[in-house]
Amino acid sequence: MPTPVSEDSSATLAARSLRSVWHPCTQMKRHEAAPPRSIVAGDGAWLVDSEGRRILDAVSSWWVNLFGHGRPEIKAAIAAQMDRIEHVMLAGLTHEPVVRLSERLAERTGLGHAQYASDGACANEIALKLSAHYWRNLGQPRKNRYIALRGSYHGETIGALGVTDVELFRSSYFPLLRPAATVPAPDARAARDAAALQQAIDSACQALDDYLRRQAADTAALIVEPLVQCAAGFVFHPPQYLRRVRELCDTHQVHLVADEIAVGMGRTGTFTACEQAGVRPDLLCLGKGLTGGFLPLSAVLCTEPLFQAFYDDEVARGFLHSHSYTGNPLACAAALATLDLLDEPRLAANRALAERLDTLFEPLYRHPRLRHGRRAGMIWAWDVEQPPADFARRFGLCALDRGVLLRPIGSTLYFMPPYVIDEAAAEHLLQATLGALEHSLRLPEHAGPPEQPLA
Ligand SMILES: *Cc1c(COP(=O)(O)O)cnc(C)c1O
User: Fold this and answer.
1) Would you tell me how many other CB atoms lie within 10 Å of the CB of residue 362?
2) Is residue 186 part of a domain?
3) Which atom of ligand 1 is nearest to the CA of 156?
4) CATH number at residue 302
């Protein structure tokens, strides 16, 4: 018997959701005023809610969707795999989708020995453990601390929170964490001209060098979000900074972990963001868009020397880490279909599309209340000047009323649309944004709760 489709109205479903579901990254009490929308379908860059309204998914459903909802090629790949084997453990066994995916990721990144988890945070956990274990295997067990960039975001599990520098996400759990050292990252916004940007890069690198001179003997790895620190409010740094970071890590014998969970899979215009700097990290983490937004899957790739340090007769020198759904065949099939779509011509087409949309978004670059307009590939961001209290939430609700899903981070408004957004949808996005800005900035100031930088 097929499960009957719920006939509940959206209001009833929202009420049931609030009773039974603990929604992520949410103060549940705030839903008293604005219950969650129920989504019944997806169609390319659009979502359809239970009232039949179409909502443009301008944040790619938390940065995961690349080629639109319901993308036929990805659906077909998952369905075909389902007819063979849905899941099998990956310890002691293997299967074609995981082998092919690992080979393809190696070709695209120049790294290898892919390991898999389901979420980005767990990929970072793998990378952090691998790095410290590598140094232990080399007889340097003291090298087990980490460095992160100021404002870093690497996920919400306890290890990943330890290298995350977002107060709101971290402060309640601080006693549980082993916090990383943080070093400043150059913020392209602060630089008025090329000389000022160079100065910001120099001083950030100097701070890292100073730290490593004192602490390299205790440090396993530096973890960075290459080119764009998204959750920090879209803090951009130039590729040149990554090159210098790579050199400093080499000089001081510390791993460079590239967390490309948000910026990888073509988001910044190239397959990985590191490519733009010509930098190869020791460990690379991918997630989010890896399956085109269909299934949870993350991957960690590493260098050959790193792998070799674990290759031994002794079991304990191996990496004894696992997750139940490691290398899930359905997720790997979805990732393979996604990689087929994300070939070099497609990346070039994305770059051209992003430039056209940039012209279309001109009114936002000129908007009197927005500044620091910036773009990397298919990521756009602007900072709202003098945002009213609770701007992010108000704006989000206004945008939803206008048929666009947007969730500013604090006072930073951003677009991260699926790569299939067309000019008509982008025009809708622009108009909805202008309207939502006007409405949410016009509202009278009130002594609301402090601004919360919820992603
Ligand atoms: C989203 C994100 C993560 C965490 O990924 P999850 O799948 O949410 O666990 C880690 N790092 C970066 C840079 C991210 O943007």
Assistant:
1) 11
2) yes
3) 9
4) 3.40.640.10
**Chunked in runs of 10, what are the mean pLDDT values of the chain (455 residues)?**
57 94 95 94 97 97 98 98 98 98 98 98 98 98 98 98 95 96 93 92 98 98 98 97 98 99 98 98 98 98 98 97 97 99 98 98 97 98 96 96 97 98 98 97 56 52
Are 259 and 230 in contact, with CB atoms under 8 Å apart?
Answer: no
CA 335 from centroid of its chain's CA atoms: 16
Place of tokens 């014998």: 253
Verify whether ligand 1 is closer than 6 Å to residue 342 (CB atom).
Answer: no
Within a domain: residue 33? no
**CB-side exposure of 128: number of CA atoms within 13 Å?**
27
For residue 88 the two structure tokens come to: 């099998």
C-alpha distance from residue 431 to each of 218, 363, 382, 424, 425 (Å): 52, 10, 16, 11, 10
90 within a domain of the structure (yes/no): yes
Question: What stretches of 222-318 show up as alpha helix (H) in DSSP?
Answer: 239-251, 304-308
Gap between the Cα atoms of 273 and 305, Å rounded: 23
Point out the ligand 1 atom lying closest to the alpha carbon of residue 298: 7
Q: Which residues contact 238 (CB under 8 A, 6 or more apart)?
A: 186, 188, 197, 201
381: its two tokens: 């961001």
Q: What is the residue range of 101's domain?
A: 73-341
What does pTM read for this prediction? 0.95
The β-bridge partners of 284 are 258, 301
- What span, in angstroms and rounded, lies between the C-alpha atoms of 80 and 430? 39
Tell me if 287 CB under 6 Å of ligand 1: yes
**What total number of domains does the chain contain?**
1
CA of 62 from ligand 1 middle (Å) equals 10
Q: Is residue 175 part of a domain?
A: yes
